[in-house]
Design brief:
This protein has about 220 residues and is mainly beta. It is built from one helix and twelve strands. The longest helix is centred in the first third of the chain and has 14 residues. It is globular, with a radius of gyration of 18 Å. Strands 1, 2, 3, 4, 5, 6, 7, 8, 9, 10, 11 and 12 form a twelve-stranded antiparallel β-sheet that branches.
Length: about 220
Amino acid sequence: MNEKFHESRYGSDMKTRILFVLFGLLLAPTAMAQINDNDFQVWTELALKYRLGEYPVSLHLAEENRFDRNASRYQTFNTTLGVHYDPTSWLTLSLLYRYEKVRGVSGENRAMPQFEIADKIGPLAIKNRHRLENRFIGSNYRFRYRTRLYLAYVFPTESLELGPYVSDEIFIEPENGLFNQNRLQGGLGLVALDGVVRISVYYMLKQDQSSVGWRKA
């Protein structure tokens, strides 16, 4: 998954942004329970972003493919279309649509408004994303809230940015046990060619809540 290192962003409203980040930290789980199985997966994503001239608006197109069973089986395809609006240098508002198809499961359509707060304090990049997922699976409707906190230590050079990062994302679904999924990541991100190329290599601990407790998925 590609992560974006942000340029320095400062302002008189730093206190507001810190409160949002603390909100994300408070939601982050402190302990996980039962782990039942392990699987090495490969997730690849191709994303395109086009800025509309001098306006703070950009169009977004992305396609993701996922492979499970130790990267030997094609598992998931999704494509995402949307628009981003940057009212300030530290806030991005987005309206996204996603179609996702998981192996053996009916296709799913999602309408996903979201906002993301980002800042950089010295070499430390901070992002806090909040997403509201309206999920349409066949004739069924389900709502899910996702919040992600991302921290990176960036080492800029003349031609690229490189740095380790860690992120944690939790999923809250009122109709399915409330807090029912967690994705904890740690890895290395690279940005080159003025942001044209973005590469992340990471380890993800993905855990789901089931009737028998937490399990690695």
